[in-house]
Amino acid sequence: MPTQTKENYLKAIYFLNNKNDAVTVTALGKEMEVSKPTVNNMIKKLTANGWINYEKYKPISLTVKGKLQAALIVRKHRLTEMFLVQIMGFGWEEVHQIAEEMEHLKTESLFDRMDEILGYPSVDPHGSPIPNKQGEFHRKSYVVMSSIAVNSKVSLRAVGDSSVALLHMLNEKEITLGTEFTIVKIEAFDKTMIVNYGKYIRASLSYEVCKRLMVEVEEG
Question: What CA–CA distance (Å, rounded) separates 154 from 59?
């Protein structure tokens, strides 16, 4: 089995763990879009690598070695995305698939150099934290915009969904990380938010969009 496939499974377990989800064979199969027998086969390989702990009928957990390995894959992915946006001028909606390929490269010095050129960023272009070389990262306690009250002022710090469709829509609305919103009204019927930001007055943002925007509430 190619190392890339193993790493993709490992990364999936890592993300499920970070969402505080119980990583079961069923959950992992759903995440990877494969059958239970396929997952069970991979579990054996990941266990042999020393990356996971697994007992039948119990959740899958990462070993210390596995957690570090997964974090370093994520680090490569997010550094690549940041480099493509900040240095090469790609849009934040263009970089995910390129980073999916780059994250499996073994040339650590390449990513160290990216990190240095970028000035050691703590987040990627979508606001997700970039692990350091020890696999550590600091996750700030942002809140979803859909939970914010009327008359509050907030700043966009991350997107909880970096799908191309959402990012294209945000581009069209000229919404980027750092955009400051004032919540003017929340529609009772469907929770659509009426907001002011930049040059836009009383713009509408649907509940489905707002629940994917991670914001920081401004003091005062």
Answer: 38
